[in-house]
Design brief:
Helix content: 55-70%
Strand order of the largest sheet: 1-2
Largest sheet: 2 strands, antiparallel
Strand content: 5-15%
Shape: rod-shaped
Distance between the termini: 28 Å
Structural class: mainly alpha
Number of helices: 3
Length: 133
Amino acid sequence: MRSREYDLEFRATARRTSAWGVGLLAVATLLWTWCALLLLTPYEVEDKPNGRSTRECESRLLTEYGTANEGLQRGDWCQDERDWPEALLILGLSVPVSVAGTALYAIGTVSSRMSAHSEAMRELDGLADARGA
């Protein structure tokens, strides 16, 4: 395989690696958005177990009252609907996805730039050899 063919294949691989990184970062962004929606938006729950009426609940993060945190001790059904562990699990799942996406994107971008730098150095060496001959 000639060096130009190898370099083009190397750059294509670097672009694919970078694209995988962008894809994983997009997945991590969706997970962060889902977590934010769970924590920041108000929601409705059925007020009684038979489900005949609904009740508006404040967001988990921005509540001024104990509706989201103290739960069924006060006869409130809001606490069971959106638990902290679910939001934290989603946030925890986003961490390795974002780390892997960042690493793949960085590796792909650096590899592509190093390949371009190497090609530029070869061209400059070729020009210097042509002048010297």
